[in-house]
Amino acid sequence: MASIARLLLLVLLSTALTVSSGSGYGYTINGRVKIPQGLGTAGLVLPGKMSNIKVILNGGQIVSYLRPDGYFSFQNIPAGTHLIEVAAIGYFFSPVRVDVSARNPGKVQAALTENRRGLSELVLEPLRDEKYYEIREPFSIMNVVKSPMGLMVGFMLVVVFLMPKLVENMDPEEMRRAQEEMRNQGVPSLASLLPGGGRN
Amino acid sequence: MAITYPIFLFLIFSSLVPILSLYEDQVGLTDWHQQYIGKVKQAVFHTHKTGRKRVVVSTELNVIATLDLRRGEIFWRHVLGSNDAVDGMDIALGKYVITLSSEGRVLRAWNLPDGQMVWESSLHGPKHSKSLLLMTNLIIERNNVVVIFSNGRLHAVSCVDGEVLWNKDFEAESLEVQQVIQPAGSNFVYIVGFAASSQFEMYQINARNGELLKHENAAFSGGFSGQVSLVSSETLVALDSTGLILLVISFHEGKISIQHTPISNLVEDAPGPAVIIPSSTMGLFAIRMNAVTIFIRVRGKGMLEVAEKVNRETTIGNALSISEGQQVFALVQHAGRDIRLTVKLAHDWDDDLLKESIKMDQQRGLVHKVFLNNYVRTDRSHGFRALIVMEDHSLLLLQQGTIVWSREDGLASIIDVTTSELPVERAGVSVAKFELNLFEWLKGHMLKLKGTLMLASPEDIAAIQYMRLQSSEKSKMTRDHNGFRKLIIVLTRAGKLFALHTGDGRIVWSRLLQSLCKSEACQHPIGLYLCPWQVPHHHALNENPFVLVVGRCFQSPDALGVLSFVDSYTGKELSSSNLDHSIARVIPLPFTDSTEQRLHLLIDADKKAHFYPKTPEAIGIVRREFSNIYWYSVEDDNGIIKGYALKSKCNSNVADKFCFDASELWSIVLPSESEKIIATVTRKLNEAVHTQAKLIAADQDVMYKYISRNLLFVATVAPKASCEIGSITPEESWLVIYLIDTVTGRVLHRMTHHGSQGPVEAVFSENWVVYHYFNLRAHRYEMSVIEIYDQSRADNKDVWKLVVGKHNLTSPISSYSRSEVVTKSQSYFFTHSLKAIDVTSTAKGITSKQLLIGTIGDQVLALDKRFLDPRRSANPTQVEREEGIIPLTDSLPIIPQSYITHNLRVEGLQGIITVPAKLESTTLVFAYGLDLFFTHFAPTRTYDSLTEEFSYALLLITIVALVAAIFVTWVLSRRKELQDRWR
């Protein structure tokens, strides 16, 4: 309970103190990385996951880590426009442009570079979570049918069961004539093609 | 709406782009990932009775990690920034790891079990100084205190929340602090150091509030040098500035007394100046003179006496208190092939607590560091385990005379990578034990079929997964049909060469190169490049391939070079030579001699060219190709690019017929006040290009790619903008890029990006360059593409001309022909910073290409080259769409499924290497940094082979079913025919 109260206190304090001037050693950027509940696979941030999130200033100039409550800070930053990136496996964060102004210290100017959205305080949230794997489609009969082998079997079944039906529906006269013709032309029947078929 | 529109468009057209993704159960089939930490600098054991035994280490690559003491696996690991080196580390309260880094400016606490950062505080000070961290047993207001001396200021910090309790400046004095000492049971600390190199200073400070209790100093006319060794909590040993006199400085109760003893009094025939090996063992210290280590005991008040003189290579470990007033320390000595671990009591030299002899792999070199830890056995005697760091940066745990585990942490610092083919499968090579019999093969496939039909039980699924991961096919030691099995040969900073098998990433052989070890002639050798030296193809197939290791004696461009030739199959060092010239550049030439040895041109610092191998045949080839050998040099500092050709034999006093003088052909001088070279890139030498023509379907046109091996991409920025982002305004920064022909010095293309700055990462392939830079106006990263087309061949479009033969397609491509070129270019936003970029390469260059982008988050992203196509437009016509042109968007998409490293990180990513497999569709990707990652990657899916997914069992069943059906129908038709005849 005490820790929650402390956390709340920190939240209240930090909103005002995003960029503060350290005593003569440049400026300090304070911020927070917040991963909303509901994003991510289990809806919860895995404990090991949080500890592996890095906050990177200006493409690797300073690398910082998160405290358990998600806060981070960069010390000794000169005035100017900086870029903060968050490297977290499983989440996509937009880089953030932070203006540290020498004239009015304490003023926050932060904007997401991806969608140019301004931030009133330096709370970084992932734009989306990233899934690195394709989801395997569950087994379905349609997939088997649609595969080349399925099509082969299907065609064969059509030939075996539907062709005799077609033959039966034919007019017996016509059928006999067709058979005559076939015999005359010497088209081999299926039986004669197979071994042993020539005997009868 | 403005934002949703491109997203909507992207969603429509993303279906056109093949997404190359992986199912979760395919992880580990073709890829492997290895994690390393680098050479250990400091180790602290955490071996309490409860919980898992672990050791916390900090390394020279700015890594903090905890390792499992039983097996050496990493529990957690954090890689600090590149300029955030760890200065000190300790465990506080039994649950936090406290680290001091960034030259004593940053203090962090990490939770020991899971590595979560608990707190961070920054410590400032008035001036630069040595950083020292001392864990005290003091408690102020229920806070455990850690005392830190950094940047000329003493801080006391609470271990619980990182709050600075008090600090005290040592600004006024020119104090060079040596030690911060807390005598046992007291509540004050001593700060001792030297001032003005001849004055010893001692401050006694109340550790509760930082109050100065006492300040004493004493002068010694001889001056002090080097480090100090603590022999009791109030006595230390130093050396005078000549290194010949030992000084025992005692500051008991604030009274300083200095006693000097010349080393020659202790040791007869002292060979010369000595150095102190810093330690803090009670009553004992060690000095080193040349190769001799001398242990000296301190008796009573400054009485010194030699305990032992050791001639062998000796490493001394830290002192360890095992019980009240008893200190032990470890010694490791080399004795032939063994190493000898000795644990001694500090106050009793002659008695050894432990003496073990351990057989050590010769390829690990010398022992560099020892960290000792003790445990209490069941019979209440003391047992010891030692963590040792070897010359090749590997880490080993010794316990009870054996090596419990070892880690090859040399692989964390790779300098260069090359690949080698495996031996061809021959009758003599026995691979029988890897082969499966037919029954097992069928059984495996039946299991797989069960898996696809969802009939498999959980055990079956586990068996399937195991079978797929342990596929013996991929880890065989012979060449395979698809060219997937290869050896990756890596050169590490420690001068060790490793060969890794692409199938499972295991180390096939490793060798600590003698030529890259410290020697008389070569004091600090470093490896530079690794080149394939001899790649047997046709007529020399029975010979083993060789790699060439190029190094130099110390880190300076005019240091003498070292060459070493190593067999790629066995790792044997065939020969090595110390050169009599320096090495500025190594150029592999496209010529090989009759034994398939590749000719190499080594350019030294004086711009002389040396040919290797030094054989008469090679010189013959050189004479024949004399006028075709060109090279260039880039001088980053003064912005000059020069082109050279061979001129004549060297006219130095040594008659060396393999040495040639260079003549300068051209030079490009960039204005140093406005441009500074930050990146140069050329095409890969071995890249295969399938076709020069590019068909443009839209207007039935053909464009000819300008393909030249002699193109150089150069990026320059305004000198002000060469530093980090955030320190410059867009108005005063620009990025200029050049495409230069390195034979003639002709600038083919020049372009300026205003308001942009580096760092620039670029990749050059076929006729295009892709480069990544920072756009200050938009404050985003950008990637640009330039494509170069040959206009002089453009009039070959007419089919009739081709038929009649009136075309110039067969005319040789020459840099001197000054052909007309056309460039097309386009830029896009890209989200991330880059660490490395490369492009896929396939055997014949037919498969379309993908860019492999190493992002700041240490992941590798595959991005289709079609996204970087200058012909993209907002509304492509129907024909263009059919051709595969993607509508223009302002930023490049990041599709999570196309991270080829999936959910893994290649921490500290440095480079990405692609090697073509024999199968045209597939390329092998090796990404290295602290971690190693390898995978197979098919830029446009594996169109030329069946995938792993293919079910042979289903095919077999279908065939069987078809055959059965044929027989059934045959029987049926026979019966019917018979009935017809009876009718």
Description:
Chain B: It comes from Hibiscus syriacus. The complex is a heterodimer of chains A (200) and B (983). Chain A is α+β, with helices and mostly antiparallel strands. Helix content of chain A is 33%, strand content 26%. A six-stranded antiparallel β-sheet of chain A has the order 4-3-6-8-9-10, with no helix packed on it. In chain A, strands 1, 2, 5 and 11 form a four-stranded mixed β-sheet that branches. In chain A, a hairpin with a 4-residue loop joins strand 3 and strand 4 (62-65). Chain A is rod-shaped, with a radius of gyration of 36 Å. Chain B has 983 residues and is mainly beta. Among the domains of chain B are: 1-30 and 835-949, no CATH class; 315-407, Thrombin, subunit H, CATH 2.40.10; 434-475; 487-669, no CATH class; 679-830, no CATH class; 951-983. Chain B has eight helices and 64 strands. In chain B, helix 3 crosses helix 4 (458-469). Chain B is globular. The termini of chain B are far apart. At the A-B interface, helix 2, strand 4, strand 5, strand 6 and strand 13 of A face strand 1, strand 6, strand 9, strand 10 and helix 8 of B. Strand 13 (133-134) of chain A pairs parallel with strand 1 of chain B, so a sheet runs across the interface.
